[in-house]
Specification:
Bound molecules: nicotinamide-adenine-dinucleotide
Strand content: 5-15%
Order of helices and strands: EHEHHEHEHHEHEHHHEHH
Number of helices: 12
Strand order of the largest sheet: 3-2-1-4-5-6-7
CATH topology of the largest domain: Rossmann fold
Shape: globular
CATH superfamily of the largest domain: NAD(P)-binding Rossmann-like Domain
Radius of gyration: 20 Å
Length: 293
C-alpha cells in the first residue's frame, strides 16, 4: 500500500503482535500497519509457524523487527517471551493478540461430540492465552502506563454460528476476559478491547467448514460489505493510538454493519423462493432447521 496516507499515529510507540503467519493473517497486517504508522514492533508466533511461515519477510518489512518464539498456551513460554521482549525492545505501549486455533474444527468433529482434550486446547490457545499474555506482561513489568491491549474476536461469541463450533465458546471467554481485566488495568490508564471482525480469508478462517459460503453470505448481509484484513489493521491502529484513550472493555464490531442487520429484501425473496421450491428446499436442508412444532 505505498500510496496510502500515513498519519504517524503510533510515532514513538512500541508494541508486540502475537499471531502473524503469512500475508493473509490479520496479525501480519496489524504489525505492518503499526510499523507504517511509526511504531517499533516485535512479532511473535509458535515455533512451527516461525519455521514454516514467512515471518522473516514481515520482520524485514517492519524495520528488522525482533521475532520472538512463544506458544501462548504455555506459562513458561509467555514468561520467557516477555523477558526477551524487554531485552530486545524494552517495555511496550501495545500488545496485540491475534491467535486462534481449534483442533475440533480442523478435524470437523460435530459440536455434540467434541473431543474434550481438544476443546480445552481451543479454550487455552484462543481464549485463556489473552489472560496469560496480560498477566505475564504485568509480572515482567513490560507494559507502559496508558497502553492498549487488543484481541480479535468474531460474532459467534454472542450468536450461534453452527460451524464455528467450540471457537464460539473460546471467543465468549476471550471477550469476558477483556471485561474482567478492564477495571484492573484502568488505574494505569491501560485499556483492553476486542475487534469483532468480518469473515476473512486467512489460514485459520478458511479452515472453518463452509467458510466460502459464510463469507459470501456475510458480504451480502453487510451494508458496507465484508471488511478485509488490511481494513481491520487500519481500524486496529486507531485503537493502539492515543486517539482512543477512553475506549476500554469493548467488543468493537468491524464488519461493514453486519452485526446490526436483521434482513435484506433480496435475502427474504431468496428464502421465499426456497420455501416454494421443494427441490431447492431439500437441497439446502431447510427441513433440518424448520421450527419444531
Ligand atoms: N479469519 C477470520 O475470518 C476471522 C474473523 C474474526 C476473527 N478472527 C480472529 O483473528 C485472529 C487471527 O486469525 P487469522 O484469521 O489472522 O488466522 P491466522 O491463521 O493467520 O492466525 C492465527 C495465528 O494463531 C497462531 N497460533 C496458533 N496456536 C498458537 C499458540 N499456541 N500460541 C501462539 N500462537 C498460536 C497461528 O500460528 C497463527 O499465526 C484469531 O483470533 C481469529 O480467531 C479471524
Amino acid at each position: 500500500m505505498p500510496d496510502k496516507a500515513h498519519y504517524g499515529l503510533l510515532k514513538g510507540k512500541k508494541g508486540i503482535v502475537f499471531g502473524p503467519l503469512d500475508e493473509s493473517s490479520i496479525g501480519w497486517q496489524i504489525a505492518l500497519h503499526a510499523y507504517r504508522e511509526g511504531a517499533e514492533v516485535a512479532i511473535s508466533n509458535i515455533a512451527t509457524a516461525l519455521r514454516f511461515g514467512n515471518i522473516q519477510e514481515l520482520a524485514e518489512s517492519c524495520g528488522n523487527a525482533p521475532v520472538i518464539m512463544c506458544d501462548a498456551s504455555k506459562d513458561e513460554d509467555v514468561d520467557k517471551a516477555f523477558k526477551e521482549l524487554s531485552e530486545k525492545l524494552g517495555s511496550v505501549d501495545f500488545i496485540v493478540h491475534s491467535i486462534g486455533m481449534s483442533q475440533n474444527i480442523r478435524k470437523q468433529v460435530p459440536y455434540e461430540e467434541l473431543n474434550y482434550e481438544w476443546f480445552m486446547k481451543t479454550l487455552n490457545v484462543s481464549g485463556i492465552s489473552l489472560h496469560r499474555l496480560v498477566s505475564f506482561a504485568l509480572k515482567n513489568d513490560v507494559l507502559n502506563d496508558g497502553g492498549s491491549i487488543l484481541a480479535l474476536s468474531y460474532i459467534a461469541s454472542q450468536r450461534n454460528y453452527w460451524t464455528y463450533s467450540d471457537m464460539g465458546d473460546a471467543k465468549s471467554l476471550l471477550e469476558s476476559i477483556v471485561r474482567s481485566y478492564g477495571p484492573r488495568l484502568a488505574k494505569r490508564g491501560i485499556r483492553i478491547n476486542t475487534i469483532s471482525q468480518s469473515p476473512t480469508y486467512t489460514k485459520a478462517g478458511s479452515g472453518i467448514p463452509g467458510f466460502e459460503k459464510m463469507h459470501e453470505y456475510s458480504d451480502l448481509m453487510s451494508p458496507l460489505g465484508n471488511a478485509s484484513a488490511e481494513e481491520c489493521a487500519e481500524y486496529a491502529v486507531t485503537l493502539l493510538s492515543d486517539l482512543t484513550r477512553k475506549v476500554t472493555m469493548q467488543n468493537l464490531f468491524h464488519d461493514g454493519g453486519y452485526s446490526s442487520m436483521g434482513a435484506t429484501i433480496p435475502m427474504i425473496r431468496l428464502a421465499d423462493e426456497a420455501l416454494h421450491d421443494e427441490e431447492l428446499a431439500a437441497r439446502v436442508g431447510l427441513e433440518d432447521f424448520s421450527p419444531s412444532k
